[in-house]
Amino acid sequence: MPPSAEHSLPEALFSADAVRQIDRYVIDQQGVDGFELMQSAAQAAFRRLVRHWRDCGPVLVLCGAGNNGGDGYLVAANAQRHGMDVHCVAVAPTRKLTGDARKAWQKALADGVIVDELADISESALKGLFASAGLIVDAMLGTGVSGAPREPFSALIGQCNQSSAPVLAVDLPSGLNASTGAAEGDVIKATMTVTFIGLKAGLFTGQGAAVCGEVVFESLGAADGVADSGQEPIARRRDWASVMPWLPERPANAHKGRFGHVLVVAGDRGFGGAGLLAAEAAARSGAGLVSLATRPEHVSAALARCPSVMAHGVVHGSELPPLLEAASVIVCGPGIGRSAWGQQMLEQVIASGKPRVLDADALNLLSARVAIPANNQILTPHPGEAARLLSCLVPEVEADRMAAANKIQTMYGGTVLLKGAGTVVASGGAAVDIISGSNPGMATGGMGDVLSGIIGAVYAQLGEADKAAVLGASVHLAAADKASGTCGFIGLIPNDVIDALPLVFRESEGSRVREG
What we know:
This protein has 516 residues and is α/β, with parallel strands linked by helices. It has 20 helices and 18 strands. The protein has helices at residues 16-28, 34-53, 67-81, 99-110, 123-132, 153-162, 208-211, 223-228, 240-243, 272-283, 299-305, 321-326, 340-352, 361-366, 383-390, 394-399, 401-412, 447-462, 465-487, 494-515, and strands at 12-13, 59-63, 86-90, 114-117, 135-139, 167-170, 192-196, 214-218, 235-238, 261-265, 289-294, 310-313, 329-332, 356-358, 377-379, 415-418, 424-426, 432-435. It is elongated and about 80 Å long.
């Protein structure tokens, strides 16, 4: 199953430094003892351990040198007191432990936990510990660590990932950047991550979306500290359940003129399917009217596939203005190519000044132009297109997805939706939006075309670019999840997602009926 996050998770997402500042505020200003806070974290993690893996067999706990390691020692102490078979490996020498982490190690020893120094364990004995483990607890590297993990942590991360045992990560998977979601080297692939005090943004985007497993949040009673500390979130966690109320209700006397007219400009020769997917997705997402401007040879296929879409064959850019004038939102880019035809289409769309969603080759063509910011546009790049817009390399984009989205937004204005697991939406505010969740079945051609059509339709209904991008990406993921529930991940195609859209939108209508 793909990584998941419970709907009860908070909305606010913080940087690692902000969470450390909140932690310090709770200790210094609210008078909470640091070791007691560590004990609370360990107890919360242990509760999750027992709830999900009560009869897991031997528990192997890997502990680092800092407070994250201290959490691990106390998790082991809890397991020992409850009669579980638990073994601790001190990955960092215990002689380096200080403060609360040292107290935690001492408590684990006092409770009878077996703690072996990694340096004293033979290679064969270490392999035996991993082979016999029914559960691995990762408490090696906390939020204060940046960069690629060094030895011996790197080797142990590799052994964890090769093990068949589930992994419970304490606060975050070792090797993951808690602020950005990047992983510069090896990173733990956790089954579950129990995180504390404040949600870290890096758990929900980039590598974080792939390696955290189920994310569980424990506030440790520090909610007031979060509010009073003065620390501001760097992102907001969004999902379909949280944003579906944004959709406007449809009164009994509704008519098509109230829900916008989306014009999809797409589909050069050889790429007609891209335009059809975007147009049908727009039609399935509530737009009052949907038109398609494409190469003439694609019109017959468009009418056969979706007769409610008004398909127009366009040979030259000069034919586009009348269609643009009739539309309220333009979706431009899917399959337009980079030839003269695609360039003419983009030129006319931009010249119209109409609200627009630019995707695919429209973005590649845009990257070759002088950036002229526009507030009424939504750009939807994948990391490769984002790299072209920023004149950088894809690894630089993935190193900090939130920063990359913000940079593009600064250059081009409007709203920027950076695709990928943990989609990032930047609209020029202090905090970005991160769409919580991912679906590996979406890694196939045409999914982006569907997304652009959905966003165009939602933009036409809401009239707000930032909300349209967030809601569009959320319902896109929700529809993919619903479709993959029937057909799985392998073989999921864009048409499956389009077919699932009405079912997902019906959830919004049903929730309003129940609330009423």
